[in-house]
Every structure is written in structure tokens, then in C-alpha cells.
Amino acid sequence: MIEKLDSLYKEFEEKITGLGNQADILNLKSEYLGKKGHISEVLKSLKNATNEERKLIGPKANEIKNEITNSVAKKLTFIETEEINKKLANEKIDITLTDAVRSNNNYSGGFHPRTLIQREIEDIFLSMGFDILDGPHIEDEFHNFEALNIPGDHPARDMQDTFWFHDPNVECDEKKHLLRTHTSTVQVHGMQARKPPFKFIAPGTVFRCERTDASHEMVFNQLEGMMVGENISVSHLIYFMKTILKEIFKKEVEVRLRPGFFPFVEPGFELDIKCLICSGKGCSVCKQVGWLELLPCGMVHPNVLKAGGIDPEKYNGFAFGLGLDRLVMMKYGIDDIRHLQSGDLRFNSQFRTF
Length: 354
Ligand code: PHE
Fold this sequence. Notes:
It is a single chain. About 40% of the residues lie in helices and about 20% in strands. By secondary structure, it is α+β, with helices and mostly antiparallel strands. The protein has 2 domains: about 1-90, no CATH class; about 115-350, BirA Bifunctional Protein, domain 2 (2-Layer Sandwich), CATH 3.30.930.10. The strands form 2 sheets. The protein has a 7-stranded mixed sheet with strand order 1-5-6-10-9-8-7, with helices on both faces. It has a 3-stranded antiparallel sheet with strand order 2-4-3. The chain is rod-shaped and about 130 Å long. About 30% of the residues are buried. The mean pLDDT is about 85. The structure holds phenylalanine. Phenylalanine binds next to strand 8, strand 9 and strand 10. Tetramer of two alpha and two beta subunits. Keywords: Aminoacyl-tRNA synthetase, ATP-binding, Cytoplasm, Ligase, Magnesium, Metal-binding, Nucleotide-binding, Protein biosynthesis.
């Protein structure tokens, strides 16, 4: 009978090693230890055994019962731990991976070329002590025109085709609202909030009712700059403009200064750069001229200083309005401004990715 018990145990051990789920293991356990199980059957036959035999077989049967119970418990714990580990491995999230890598997509996103240029310019101006300002897209007539020396009847208003808001509740002209046509509005906000001397830049989106072509968009971006203090001169203006262009293009670029008219500067200039797309030969971006208007600028008109609460007898300054999109086009050799807003990933993914 001892041999029988031993072989039952051996058989049990062989069977349990092949099992992998809880239910099968519990069934196996009852097959051996249950009321009608193999071990119980052996014990039942003890009735007919001698006392000597019982002394031997009793403890042996108990030992085997314990072995089986332990072995079942061990196997159940093993399976449970294995299941937990499997679940943990499946649910593991690597927070260091980007979405794109996680989804096995090769394009992991990147910065729009305008963002790259804007950040570069902001860094350069920050290093020269300029503040960076922001302004509202929806403006009133005062900030977009009046304060910039462009009264209602001024012909210069025609230079900027404007998206107006029709507000039936507003009768007074000065309170009419519009989408800002230039970032020069921030000059006014900046002056009103500061005391000279000060200098700041203001990058931002502007809106004009334009017919779109390779170099015109209705929604585009400028970067305004203003410096006000005592004894500021045109040479300060030229110095800052040249420094910026040199830093951006990483080389001396050919520039020319022409007289330009903007009611808010006097004297006013147009700073052109030689078209880097066609090296001055003429192309659709420079309208076959070879030069590109990039940086309208000038000395702040006394009326503008006055509107900003600054004494023009004591202070003067310069202002400029960089065409940010055009600069991006020159820097990266992009021949159509419409690519910039296309949202086309084939375009966007050519620039620096994460
Ligand atoms: N605001 C002008 C424009 O959008 C540009 C400009 C800014 C000109 C500052 C002179 C000085 O055309």
C-alpha cells in the first residue's frame, strides 16, 4: 500500500506539472484528495489492514496528503504571479516615448519653420535687452489707425484693406472694431504701459483683405519692434536691423534702404534684401525685381509718441515691422507663401523635428 501511495503521488506530480490554469489544478486536487479521490480510496482499505500496517501507512498517507496540498498551493501561487506579471508587462507605459514612436509612425512631429525663425529672433532681441510683447488680434480703430497718425480721412488707410466688424450698437467711429492689419498696434499698447527708455518686439498674426498669390496671404505674420529713449537716431535703427539679418542668415546679406512712407514714422524707410531665392535675378517671390521688401521702418512720428503718452520734445525712437513670413521664405528657400498655412505634413516635416 505504501508503494501504491508513492506511485499515486508520483502520478499526481506528473499531472500537475502539465497544468496551467486554476480550475484544472483544483479538479486534480479533488481527484486525489476528494472524498472519492484516489488517496481516500487507499485509506478506506485500511479497514482491513493490521495494526502494524496502519502505523506505517497512516503517517505516510498524511504526509502525501500534505505534499499534495502544498504542491497545489505552490502551483496556484505560481500561476497567479505569472498572470499578474503578464498583465503588468502588457499594460506597461513607457512615458519617455512620444506618441508617434509609440504608434510606430516615423514622423515624430516638429516645429513650423515660422516658429523656428521667431524663436531665433526672439532670442537675439532678448540678448540685446528687448522685451517681448503680445497684443490682441481684434483691435479698435484708435490702436490700429488713429494713434498711429492715420486719421479716418487719411489716404494711407487704403494701404491696408481691413476686415471690419459691423457692430450695430456702436455709432462712434473711433470705437469700431477690426482685425488688426499690422502689429504696429502693439506700439501703442507698449507705449501706454511704459515709461522711456524702453525697447520691445511684438511678433504676431495680422489680417488683410488681400487677393492671395505667391507672396501675399490674408493672414500673415509680422514682428514689430520699437525702441524709445533720448537721442535715438537712424544709425541705431540700421545697426539693429543689420545685426538681426546677419544673425538670422548667418552671413552678411545685401540690403538697401529706400525712402518709404508710413504715417507713423518720419523719416520712413523700406529696407529691402536681395532676393535669396533667385540671387537677385528676378522670380515670382520678388515679383521679378530681384529685391524683397522685408523691413519697413523709420523714426517714430511725434504724433505717435504723443498718442502713447510720451513727450516728443524729450524722447524719440525707431520702429520697424518685419515681415516674418517673408523672412521664413528667404531663409528656407520657400517659393510660395501659401505653403506656410497649408497644414500639409509633407511641407512641415521638412523642418526640424523633435
Ligand atoms: N506697420 C507697417 C505695415 O504693416 C510696417 C511698419 C512698422 C512700418 C513700423 C514702419 C514702422 O506695413
